[in-house]
Write a structure and sequence with these properties.
Structural class: mainly alpha
Distance between the termini: 29 Å
Number of strands: 3
Low-confidence stretches: none
Number of domains: 3
Order of helices and strands: HHHHHHHHHHEHEEH
Strand order of the largest sheet: 1-2-3
Strand content: 5-15%
CATH class of the largest domain: Mainly Alpha
Mean pLDDT: 87
CATH architecture of the largest domain: Alpha Horseshoe
Shape: elongated
Number of helices: 12
CATH superfamily of the largest domain: MgtE N-terminal domain-like
Protein backbone atom coordinates (compact mmCIF):
# COMPACT_ATOMS: atom_id res chain seq x y z
CA UNK A 1 0.00 0.00 0.00
CA UNK A 2 1.43 3.37 -1.02
CA UNK A 3 2.13 6.14 1.47
CA UNK A 4 0.64 9.65 1.07
CA UNK A 5 4.05 10.86 -0.14
CA UNK A 6 4.22 8.19 -2.85
CA UNK A 7 0.69 8.63 -4.26
CA UNK A 8 1.34 11.85 -6.28
CA UNK A 9 4.39 10.21 -7.88
CA UNK A 10 2.40 7.09 -8.79
CA UNK A 11 -0.39 9.24 -10.24
CA UNK A 12 2.14 11.20 -12.29
CA UNK A 13 3.55 7.94 -13.68
CA UNK A 14 0.06 6.75 -14.63
CA UNK A 15 -0.76 10.01 -16.40
CA UNK A 16 2.62 10.42 -18.14
CA UNK A 17 1.80 8.17 -21.16
CA UNK A 18 -1.39 10.13 -21.87
CA UNK A 19 0.38 13.48 -21.60
CA UNK A 20 3.16 12.23 -23.88
CA UNK A 21 0.61 11.00 -26.40
CA UNK A 22 -1.19 14.35 -26.40
CA UNK A 23 2.10 16.16 -26.95
CA UNK A 24 3.04 13.75 -29.75
CA UNK A 25 -0.35 14.34 -31.35
CA UNK A 26 0.17 18.11 -31.29
CA UNK A 27 3.61 17.80 -32.90
CA UNK A 28 2.37 15.49 -35.64
CA UNK A 29 -0.56 17.78 -36.45
CA UNK A 30 1.81 20.73 -36.71
CA UNK A 31 4.11 18.83 -39.09
CA UNK A 32 1.35 17.54 -41.35
CA UNK A 33 -0.14 21.02 -41.69
CA UNK A 34 3.17 22.09 -43.26
CA UNK A 35 3.09 19.36 -45.92
CA UNK A 36 2.30 20.22 -49.54
CA UNK A 37 -1.43 20.79 -49.88
CA UNK A 38 -2.05 17.87 -52.24
CA UNK A 39 -0.61 15.44 -49.71
CA UNK A 40 -1.39 17.03 -46.37
CA UNK A 41 -5.05 16.07 -46.08
CA UNK A 42 -4.39 12.39 -46.69
CA UNK A 43 -1.37 12.28 -44.39
CA UNK A 44 -3.08 14.26 -41.66
CA UNK A 45 -6.16 12.02 -41.72
CA UNK A 46 -4.07 8.87 -41.48
CA UNK A 47 -1.82 10.18 -38.72
CA UNK A 48 -4.72 11.58 -36.73
CA UNK A 49 -6.44 8.21 -36.74
CA UNK A 50 -3.26 6.53 -35.55
CA UNK A 51 -2.74 9.09 -32.80
CA UNK A 52 -6.41 8.89 -31.80
CA UNK A 53 -6.19 5.11 -31.42
CA UNK A 54 -3.02 5.42 -29.34
CA UNK A 55 -4.67 8.02 -27.07
CA UNK A 56 -7.72 5.80 -26.54
CA UNK A 57 -5.46 2.88 -25.57
CA UNK A 58 -3.71 5.00 -22.95
CA UNK A 59 -6.99 6.37 -21.56
CA UNK A 60 -8.38 2.86 -21.23
CA UNK A 61 -5.58 2.10 -18.78
CA UNK A 62 -6.72 4.83 -16.38
CA UNK A 63 -9.52 4.72 -13.82
CA UNK A 64 -12.19 7.42 -13.69
CA UNK A 65 -10.53 9.31 -10.84
CA UNK A 66 -7.24 9.51 -12.75
CA UNK A 67 -9.01 10.72 -15.91
CA UNK A 68 -10.83 13.33 -13.83
CA UNK A 69 -7.52 14.54 -12.38
CA UNK A 70 -6.06 14.63 -15.89
CA UNK A 71 -8.92 16.73 -17.27
CA UNK A 72 -8.74 19.13 -14.33
CA UNK A 73 -5.06 19.83 -15.04
CA UNK A 74 -5.06 19.98 -18.86
CA UNK A 75 -5.39 23.19 -20.90
CA UNK A 76 -8.73 23.56 -22.66
CA UNK A 77 -7.70 22.29 -26.11
CA UNK A 78 -6.15 19.06 -24.82
CA UNK A 79 -8.97 18.63 -22.29
CA UNK A 80 -11.49 18.76 -25.12
CA UNK A 81 -9.50 16.20 -27.10
CA UNK A 82 -9.50 13.74 -24.21
CA UNK A 83 -13.18 14.33 -23.43
CA UNK A 84 -14.24 13.57 -27.00
CA UNK A 85 -12.50 10.18 -26.85
CA UNK A 86 -14.22 8.96 -23.69
CA UNK A 87 -17.11 6.46 -24.03
CA UNK A 88 -20.35 7.97 -22.76
CA UNK A 89 -20.56 5.68 -19.74
CA UNK A 90 -17.00 6.52 -18.72
CA UNK A 91 -17.63 10.22 -19.35
CA UNK A 92 -20.55 10.15 -16.92
CA UNK A 93 -18.39 8.73 -14.14
CA UNK A 94 -15.59 11.17 -14.94
CA UNK A 95 -17.96 14.15 -14.90
CA UNK A 96 -18.54 13.52 -11.21
CA UNK A 97 -14.78 13.75 -10.55
CA UNK A 98 -14.31 17.21 -12.10
CA UNK A 99 -14.23 20.60 -10.47
CA UNK A 100 -17.24 22.74 -11.37
CA UNK A 101 -15.44 25.05 -13.81
CA UNK A 102 -14.04 22.17 -15.87
CA UNK A 103 -17.33 20.26 -15.75
CA UNK A 104 -19.24 23.32 -16.96
CA UNK A 105 -16.74 23.80 -19.80
CA UNK A 106 -17.15 20.21 -21.00
CA UNK A 107 -20.93 20.24 -20.59
CA UNK A 108 -21.09 23.39 -22.75
CA UNK A 109 -18.83 21.75 -25.34
CA UNK A 110 -20.94 18.57 -25.59
CA UNK A 111 -23.86 18.39 -28.00
CA UNK A 112 -27.26 17.68 -26.44
CA UNK A 113 -27.65 14.15 -27.81
CA UNK A 114 -24.33 12.99 -26.39
CA UNK A 115 -24.86 14.83 -23.11
CA UNK A 116 -28.20 13.04 -22.61
CA UNK A 117 -26.49 9.73 -23.36
CA UNK A 118 -23.81 10.53 -20.76
CA UNK A 119 -26.41 11.52 -18.17
CA UNK A 120 -28.37 8.36 -18.92
CA UNK A 121 -25.46 6.33 -17.52
CA UNK A 122 -25.78 8.04 -14.13
CA UNK A 123 -28.07 6.94 -11.32
CA UNK A 124 -30.40 9.35 -9.54
CA UNK A 125 -27.94 10.18 -6.74
CA UNK A 126 -25.19 10.94 -9.25
CA UNK A 127 -27.50 13.12 -11.33
CA UNK A 128 -28.29 15.27 -8.28
CA UNK A 129 -24.54 15.85 -7.76
CA UNK A 130 -24.30 17.86 -10.99
CA UNK A 131 -27.86 19.12 -11.53
CA UNK A 132 -26.80 22.73 -10.88
CA UNK A 133 -24.26 22.52 -13.73
CA UNK A 134 -26.69 21.34 -16.41
CA UNK A 135 -28.81 23.41 -18.79
CA UNK A 136 -32.38 23.33 -17.42
CA UNK A 137 -33.85 21.78 -20.57
CA UNK A 138 -31.25 18.99 -20.59
CA UNK A 139 -31.71 18.34 -16.88
CA UNK A 140 -35.47 18.05 -17.37
CA UNK A 141 -35.03 15.55 -20.21
CA UNK A 142 -32.63 13.49 -18.09
CA UNK A 143 -35.12 13.49 -15.20
CA UNK A 144 -38.01 12.54 -17.49
CA UNK A 145 -36.03 9.51 -18.68
CA UNK A 146 -35.82 8.07 -15.15
CA UNK A 147 -38.24 5.56 -13.68
CA UNK A 148 -41.06 7.09 -11.65
CA UNK A 149 -39.59 6.52 -8.17
CA UNK A 150 -36.17 7.74 -9.28
CA UNK A 151 -37.71 10.75 -10.97
CA UNK A 152 -39.63 11.71 -7.84
CA UNK A 153 -36.49 11.32 -5.76
CA UNK A 154 -34.46 13.65 -7.99
CA UNK A 155 -37.20 16.28 -8.09
CA UNK A 156 -37.47 16.23 -4.30
CA UNK A 157 -33.70 16.44 -3.78
CA UNK A 158 -32.98 19.29 -6.18
CA UNK A 159 -35.80 21.32 -4.62
CA UNK A 160 -33.78 21.76 -1.43
CA UNK A 161 -31.45 24.77 -1.16
CA UNK A 162 -27.81 24.29 -2.06
CA UNK A 163 -25.78 23.64 1.07
CA UNK A 164 -28.61 21.94 2.92
CA UNK A 165 -28.73 18.35 4.16
CA UNK A 166 -31.56 17.74 1.69
CA UNK A 167 -29.30 18.79 -1.17
CA UNK A 168 -26.78 16.13 -0.11
CA UNK A 169 -29.14 13.23 0.58
CA UNK A 170 -28.60 9.79 -0.89
CA UNK A 171 -30.81 6.74 -1.16
CA UNK A 172 -27.78 4.52 -1.64
CA UNK A 173 -28.00 2.61 1.65
CA UNK A 174 -29.01 -0.72 3.13
CA UNK A 175 -32.38 -0.74 4.90
CA UNK A 176 -33.96 -3.63 6.81
CA UNK A 177 -37.15 -4.09 8.83
CA UNK A 178 -36.99 -4.50 12.59
CA UNK A 179 -38.89 -7.83 12.40
CA UNK A 180 -36.06 -9.55 10.51
CA UNK A 181 -33.44 -11.74 12.15
CA UNK A 182 -29.69 -11.26 12.16
CA UNK A 183 -29.53 -14.11 9.66
CA UNK A 184 -31.84 -12.15 7.33
CA UNK A 185 -29.74 -9.02 7.79
CA UNK A 186 -26.52 -10.83 6.91
CA UNK A 187 -28.18 -12.28 3.82
CA UNK A 188 -29.32 -8.79 2.86
CA UNK A 189 -25.72 -7.60 2.97
CA UNK A 190 -24.44 -10.62 1.06
CA UNK A 191 -27.08 -10.35 -1.65
CA UNK A 192 -26.41 -6.67 -2.40
CA UNK A 193 -24.71 -6.34 -5.82
CA UNK A 194 -22.25 -4.02 -4.12
CA UNK A 195 -22.18 -2.23 -0.81
CA UNK A 196 -23.05 1.46 -1.08
CA UNK A 197 -20.07 3.75 -0.43
CA UNK A 198 -19.39 4.48 3.24
CA UNK A 199 -21.64 1.67 4.44
CA UNK A 200 -20.95 1.18 8.13
CA UNK A 201 -24.43 0.32 9.37
CA UNK A 202 -27.86 -0.95 8.39
CA UNK A 203 -30.78 1.42 8.82
CA UNK A 204 -33.79 -0.17 10.52
CA UNK A 205 -37.40 0.75 9.81
CA UNK A 206 -40.59 -0.20 11.62
CA UNK A 207 -44.26 0.19 10.77
CA UNK A 208 -45.04 2.72 8.03
CA UNK A 209 -41.34 2.60 7.04
CA UNK A 210 -40.33 4.98 9.81
CA UNK A 211 -36.73 4.93 10.99
CA UNK A 212 -36.48 3.23 14.38
CA UNK A 213 -32.77 2.44 14.74
CA UNK A 214 -29.50 1.30 13.22
CA UNK A 215 -27.36 -1.82 13.39
CA UNK A 216 -23.60 -1.35 12.86
CA UNK A 217 -22.25 -4.01 10.49
CA UNK A 218 -19.80 -5.22 13.10
CA UNK A 219 -22.72 -6.02 15.40
CA UNK A 220 -24.06 -8.59 12.94
CA UNK A 221 -21.20 -10.88 13.95
CA UNK A 222 -21.83 -10.58 17.69
CA UNK A 223 -25.37 -11.93 17.98
CA UNK A 224 -26.90 -15.39 17.33
CA UNK A 225 -28.41 -15.57 13.86
CA UNK A 226 -31.96 -16.03 15.17
CA UNK A 227 -31.84 -12.78 17.17
CA UNK A 228 -34.41 -10.23 16.01
CA UNK A 229 -33.04 -6.98 14.68
CA UNK A 230 -35.31 -5.01 17.01
CA UNK A 231 -33.63 -6.71 19.99
CA UNK A 232 -30.11 -5.62 19.09
CA UNK A 233 -30.48 -2.37 17.17
CA UNK A 234 -29.29 0.97 18.50
CA UNK A 235 -32.24 3.32 18.93
CA UNK A 236 -30.12 6.34 19.94
CA UNK A 237 -29.63 7.59 16.39
CA UNK A 238 -28.08 10.88 15.29
CA UNK A 239 -30.41 12.12 12.55
CA UNK A 240 -30.85 15.34 10.58
CA UNK A 241 -33.67 17.21 8.91
CA UNK A 242 -33.48 17.97 5.16
CA UNK A 243 -33.47 21.70 5.87
CA UNK A 244 -30.49 21.54 8.23
CA UNK A 245 -27.29 23.25 7.17
CA UNK A 246 -24.87 20.77 5.59
CA UNK A 247 -21.85 22.42 7.23
CA UNK A 248 -23.41 22.03 10.67
CA UNK A 249 -24.22 18.41 9.82
CA UNK A 250 -20.63 17.88 8.72
CA UNK A 251 -19.38 19.17 12.05
CA UNK A 252 -21.73 16.75 13.79
CA UNK A 253 -20.22 13.95 11.69
CA UNK A 254 -16.80 14.86 13.05
CA UNK A 255 -18.06 15.31 16.60
CA UNK A 256 -19.82 11.94 16.72
CA UNK A 257 -17.33 10.15 14.44
CA UNK A 258 -20.04 9.32 11.90
CA UNK A 259 -19.60 7.76 8.48
CA UNK A 260 -23.27 7.88 7.51
CA UNK A 261 -26.46 9.15 9.11
CA UNK A 262 -30.19 9.23 8.32
CA UNK A 263 -32.37 12.25 8.08
CA UNK A 264 -35.75 12.29 9.70
CA UNK A 265 -37.51 11.60 6.41
CA UNK A 266 -35.73 8.25 6.04
CA UNK A 267 -33.21 9.32 3.45
CA UNK A 268 -29.52 9.21 4.16
CA UNK A 269 -26.61 11.59 4.31
Amino acid sequence: MSTPEERPKKLARRLAPVLEQLQRQSVVESVTHRQQQNRSDLIENLVQRQQQAALVRELNRLNKADIGHLLNMLPADKRHTVWQELPDETAGDVLLELNDAVAEDLIELTDEARLLSILGALDSDELTEIDNLLPPAVLQQAIDALETNERNWVKQTIAYPEGSVGDNMSRDSLVIHESLTIRDAIERVRSAPELPPQTDKLFVTGHHHQLVGVVPLIELMRYPEDTLVRDCMDTDVVAFSPGDDAVDAGQAFERYDLISAPNRWNYFF
